[in-house]
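Subgroup meeting minutes
Present: P.N., E.W., G.H.
Scribe: E.W.

1. P.N. recapped why we're keeping a running log of single-chain structure predictions: easier to compare across weeks, and new members can see raw inputs and outputs side by side.
2. G.H. added today's entry (79 aa).
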Amino acid sequence: MFSCRAAWQRCGPLARRAAYRLPQDGESEKSHSDCLLPPQAYNTVVSDHTRYNERIAEIKARPTTEWVPKPWPPKSSSE
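Output recorded in log:
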C-alpha cells in the first residue's frame, strides 16, 4: 500500500501534465475496409474465418440432451 502511494505521489503530477488525445472531427470509427492487407495476411484471415465457421457449425451439429436439474434437497444415503 505504501509503495503504491509513494509512486502516485511521485508520478501523479507527471500523469496529470501528460498530453492526451482530443476527439477529432469526422468519423469516430473508421471502417476496416480502409486498410490494405498483404496477400499472405489476407489469405490467413480468410482461412481462419472459414475454419472458425466450420468449427461453429460442427459444435452446433453435436447432439445435446436437455438439462434436467437434480432434485432438491438431495436424499441422504440412509433414506
